[in-house]
Amino acid sequence: MEIREIYPGVYKSKNKLFTEPLINESVYGEKILKINGKTLREWLPGRSKLGAAIMKGLKEFPIKKDSLVLYLGAASGTTISHVSDIARNGMIYGVEFSPIVGRQLLSLAEKRFNLVPIISDASLPESYESLVPIVDVIFQDIAQRHQVEILVRNAKKFLKRNGYAMIAVKARSIDVASKPTMVFREVRSQLEESFEILQELRLEPWERDHAFFLLLFS
Ligand SMILES: C[S@@+](CC[C@H](N)C(=O)[O-])C[C@H]1O[C@@H](n2cnc3c(N)ncnc32)[C@H](O)[C@@H]1O
Predict the structure, then answer these.
(1) Which of 27, 43, 92, 174 satisfies CB 3.0 to 4.6 Å to 69 for a cystine?
(2) Percent of the chain, pLDDT > 90?
(3) How far is the CA of 182 from the centre of ligand 1 (A)?
């Protein structure tokens, strides 16, 4: 299989994505393979909006080996585990408000030394300000009506100047009645008040009616 490193720490074959596992253990049923002498963990784009955005041609990938990342909506740890593989010398602060799914996040963080789990509400960034420093990147995937407002609140508190943000938006979570294109236009204009929009992608065929924005905070 021919594999290329498309961003530092992110590998791609013709139609598959991989990261180099920080811990040699499957997190969500994905395969760990040895390819051309390298151990790689499959990153399934159908299970991860960040993975889907990469497959759709994300033109810049702001998460580097030593990045500090604030991850809002960490759930049980699927995507954040790949972020932890990539930012292996950095630190990832994962916020999740459901204590039930958060339990898996806590056990993931026991094995991954660069993961700080925070069971809290991302709309109340002051509740975790003592745990999170100024970060290089914020990633948000919370599928909530006021998610842009929540992202902006966190960016103002934690994101460095000229830092990056990425947000996955599910049209139906914002407005069930409107067409996704109308919802995304409204989201775009809200985001433009605080960020420069570097790229907007749709996530089909992996996620229906989802948009993904790559943003610069100035
Ligand atoms: C679509 S899932 C995230 C999936 C995850 N990003 C992944 O790819 O592995 C959305 C998650 O956001 C969480 N969430 C929703 N609103 C939140 C909030 N205000 N604060 C923290 N977490 C929130 C939900 O509990 C849910 O686990």
Answers:
(1) 92
(2) 96
(3) 23
CA–CA distance from 120 to each of 42, 72, 128 (Å)? 29, 10, 7
> Using CA atoms, how far apart are residues 100 and 105, in angstroms rounded to an integer?
9
94 has pLDDT over 90: yes
**206 close to 44: Cβ distance less than 8 angstroms:** no
pTM of the full structure: 0.97
Residue 1 has pLDDT above 90, yes or no: no
Residues near ligand 1 with C-beta < 6 Å? 48-49, 73, 75, 78-79, 95-98, 101, 121-123, 141-144
Is 2 among the domain residues?
no
Where b means 16+ CB within 10 Å and e means fewer, 72-101 reads bbbbbbbbbbbbbbbbbebbbbbbbbeeee
pLDDT digits over 144-186, tens only?
999 999 999 999 999 999 999 999 999 999 988 999 999 999 9
Q: Which residue has the tokens 């041609």?
A: 57
CATH number (domain holding residue 188): 3.40.50.150
**Residue 218: pLDDT band with limits 50, 70, 90:** confident
The domain in which residue 175 lies consists of 45-217
Considering its fold, how many domains does the chain have in total? 1
171 lies in some domain? yes
* The ligand 1 atom nearest the CA atom of 81: 9
Question: Which tokens belong to 28?
Answer: 């969500």
Cα Rg of the chain, angstroms: 16
How much is the pLDDT for 122? 98
